[in-house]
Every structure is written in structure tokens, then in C-alpha cells.
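Priority: medium. Attachment 1 of 2:
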């Protein structure tokens, strides 16, 4: 298994239509000699995210792209899971921002729904799925735990960053240097697992 899942050179489809994400992933994989091509350039459809978990949605996107392109394909799915809200917004994190992607409103909704509880624990979660055209798929999960603060603080980052303080820190992800966030983020942790399993030097 360790050999069949190793990606050495060649071209990898990135199952995202988000140019920012595509650029970030391409940069992360360049040192491993992997060429990347985005979903839009391949003319791939954007499948509906019908899964019940981050992993299921990442797998769905990666498998759809791998089958349609004939290339190995990588997809991710991520979000904020709030303990006192039973893990919400979770896989619906992007949707809470609405069509306008209004995360100030999404953060106010989190605050409103937390009224009546003092539990402010939350985690950011990222799932990465790597799929092959023959249907094989592997998933890697990264998490960062922390607490929520209101009102939001900081103008860096995106989404729910201004209300999330990672464990052991005092600044929100919205206040931190981007490099400091990227060193500990859920996405970085999922990528580290993916790279160790599939892109590192052969054992
Ligand atoms: P998706 O993975 O593109 O479906 O988007 C997940 C959503 O979760 C984003 O729109 C953000 O609202 C939120 N999210 C995921 N990762 C982060 C992060 O690092 N900071 C802030 N919000 C995030």
C-alpha cells in the first residue's frame, strides 16, 4: 500500500474552483516535483457536497475529479466545529456566510447561538482526500483546537479567523502573522500527513 499510494512526479488534478486554494496547494506540492492542474482548467464540474462529514465531502470531490480527468486528484473540505453547538457550523461553515460570503454575519450567528452557554470550545477541521481514477481514495485529517472570542478581532485571514484563538495562544487567527497561523493550522496538519504518506522521499 505504501508504494501504490506514493505520488512521484506526474500531474495531479486539484479539485477546487477556488484560485486562491489552487495556488496555495500548487506551491505546497512544487518541492515534490508534482505538477498541478485545477478543476476549471480541466473543465471539471463542481459536485454537490452531499456528504455528512468533512472526509466524505473531500472524497466525493476527489473521486469525481479523478474519474472525470483520468488523473490522481486531490480535494479538501474544511470548517469550524463549535462544541456547544454539536459541531455546527461544521460542514456547513461556508454556507453560514450565505451567497454574499458574509462571515461577519456568520460570526454574529455563532455568538447568538452560544447565548446561554459559557462553553466556548471550538476546532477548525480540514480533510484532504487523494483519489485515483480506479476508485482508490485516501483521507488525511488535521485539527486545531481553541476557544471562541467575541467581538471578532483582527483583519487578517478569512472566514471565522477573527473569533478563533488557538490553544495556548492569546491572539485570534485574524490577528496572527499568517506564517504563524500556517505553522499550526488544521490545513497545515492535514497536509503534513498527506505529504508524509504520499509525497515524501521513498522509504
Ligand atoms: P470549504 O472547505 O471551501 O468548503 O470552506 C470551508 C469554510 O470553512 C470556509 O468558507 C470558511 O468559512 C471556513 N474555514 C475553513 N478553514 C478556515 C480557516 O482557516 N479560517 C477561517 N475559516 C475557515
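Attachment 2 of 2:
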Amino acid at each position: 500500500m505504501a508504494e501504490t499510494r506514493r505520488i512521484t512526479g506526474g500531474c495531479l488534478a486539484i479539485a477546487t474552483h477556488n484560485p486562491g486554494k489552487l495556488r496555495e496547494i500548487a506551491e505546497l506540492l512544487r518541492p515534490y516535483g508534482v505538477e498541478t492542474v485545477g478543476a476549471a482548467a480541466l473543465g471539471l464540474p463542481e459536485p454537490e457536497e452531499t456528504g455528512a462529514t468533512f472526509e466524505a465531502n473531500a472524497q466525493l470531490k476527489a473521486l469525481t475529479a479523478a474519474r472525470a480527468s483520468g488523473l490522481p486528484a486531490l480535494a479538501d473540505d474544511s470548517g469550524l466545529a463549535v462544541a456547544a453547538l454539536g459541531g455546527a457550523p461544521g460542514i456547513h461553515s461556508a454556507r453560514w456566510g450565505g451567497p454574499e460570503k458574509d462571515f461577519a454575519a456568520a460570526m454574529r450567528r455563532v455568538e447568538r447561538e452560544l447565548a446561554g452557554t459559557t462553553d466556548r470550545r471550538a476546532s477548525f477541521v480540514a480533510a484532504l482526500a487523494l483519489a485515483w481514477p480506479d476508485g482508490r481514495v485516501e483521507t488525511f485529517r488535521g485539527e486545531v483546537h481553541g476557544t471562541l472570542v467575541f467581538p471578532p478581532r483582527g483583519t487578517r485571514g478569512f472566514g471565522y479567523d477573527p473569533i478563533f484563538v488557538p490553544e495556548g495562544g492569546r491572539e485570534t487567527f485574524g490577528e496572527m502573522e499568517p506564517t504563524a497561523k500556517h505553522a499550526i493550522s488544521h490545513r497545515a496538519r492535514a497536509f503534513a500527513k498527506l505529504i508524509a504518506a504520499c509525497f515524501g522521499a521513498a522509504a
